[in-house]
């Protein structure tokens, strides 16, 4: 039962609105058992983190973060796969934040894919980033590093972070990857504005 509880929370965090019937099929539970599980999860908090109707259940982003902190942080990974759009943003964020060469294996581990997949991703990314006057330099010995003006890189970073935060469980994804605390976005934007003012005055 405890395993089902964790798996149900994981399922709800990764999705938006979920139908009761979907949970019944996915976890081979009766409707009554699903209801009992939801109540059990809510009872472990001081408030209802799962909002439910007769047909569906829903979790706010704040509730998802509460559940992640309680059941998954430092206990196991929530995500097991990322689509290209998410990988694209993760690579931009990690290269912009780390400001150093990162190996193919390090990027593959962050994006939860093979090294061959990252190689293909990087080819597409390099073409796209060239239009933004940013280069991703590759060294066989050291890996990849992002090069370009501070303004362009920070602008790209802020955009990538915002894209992730707009996705389902985006704050949790950033937390799990330990890349950028969403509370730092305001400071990133302010720094970007400062760089832009300096560029215009020079």
Give an overview of the whole structure:
This protein has two domains: 2-71, Orthogonal Bundle (Arc Repressor Mutant, subunit A), CATH 1.10.10; 84-201, Arc Repressor Mutant, subunit A. A three-stranded antiparallel beta sheet has the order 1-3-2. Strands 4-5 form a two-stranded antiparallel sheet. It has helices spanning 2-14, 20-27, 31-43, 61-71, 84-98, 104-111, 115-130, 150-166, 170-177, 185-201; strands spanning 18-19, 51-52, 56-58, 135-139, 143-147. The protein is mainly α and 202 residues long. It is elongated. It has ten helices and five strands. The mean pLDDT is 86.
Name its key features.
mainly alpha; Arc Repressor Mutant, subunit A; 3-stranded antiparallel beta sheet; two-stranded antiparallel sheet; 62% helix
Write a brief structural summary.
The chain is mainly alpha-helical.
Topology overview:
Layout: H1 2-14, E1 18-19, H2 20-27, H3 31-43, E2 51-52, E3 56-58, H4 61-71, H5 84-98, H6 104-111, H7 115-130, E4 135-139, E5 143-147, H8 150-166, H9 170-177, H10 185-201
Antiparallel strand pairs: 1-3, 2-3, 4-5
The residue fraction in helices comes out at: 55-70%
- Please state roughly what percent of the residues sit in beta strands, choosing from under 5%, 5-15%, 15-25%, 25-35%, 35-45% or over 45%: 5-15%
Please name the CATH topology of the largest domain. Arc Repressor Mutant, subunit A
Nearest-integer average pLDDT: 86
Adjacency order of strands in the biggest sheet: 1-3-2
CATH top-level class of the largest domain: Mainly Alpha
- Molecular shape: elongated
H/E series, N to C?
HEHHEEHHHHEEHHH
- Through-space gap between termini: 64 Å
Could you say what the CATH architecture of the largest domain is? Orthogonal Bundle
Largest sheet: 3 strands, antiparallel
Name the assembly state.
single chain
């Amino acid at each position: 039962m405890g395993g089902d509880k964790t798996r149900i929370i994981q399922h709800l965090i990764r999705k938006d609105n979920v139908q009761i019937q979907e949970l019944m099929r996915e976890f081979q539970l009766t409707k009554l058992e699903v209801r009992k599980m939801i109540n059990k999860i809510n009872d472990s908090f001081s408030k209802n983190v799962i909002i439910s109707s007769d047909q569906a259940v829903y979790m706010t982003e704040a509730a998802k973060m509460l559940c992640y902190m309680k059941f998954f942080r430092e206990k196991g990974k929530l995500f097991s796969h990322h689509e290209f759009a998410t990988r694209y943003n993760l690579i931009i964020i990690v290269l912009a934040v780390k400001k150093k060469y990162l190996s193919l294996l390090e990027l593959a581990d962050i994006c939860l894919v093979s090294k061959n997949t990252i190689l293909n991703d990087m080819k597409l990314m390099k073409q796209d980033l060239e239009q933004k006057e940013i280069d991703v330099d590759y060294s066989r010995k050291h890996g990849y590093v992002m090069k370009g003006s501070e303004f362009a890189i920070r602008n790209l970073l802020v955009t990538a972070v915002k894209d992730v935060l707009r996705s389902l469980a985006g704050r949790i994804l950033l937390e799990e990857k330990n890349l950028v605390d969403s509370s730092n976005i305001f400071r990133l934007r302010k720094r970007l504005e400062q760089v832009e003012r300096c560029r215009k005055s020079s």
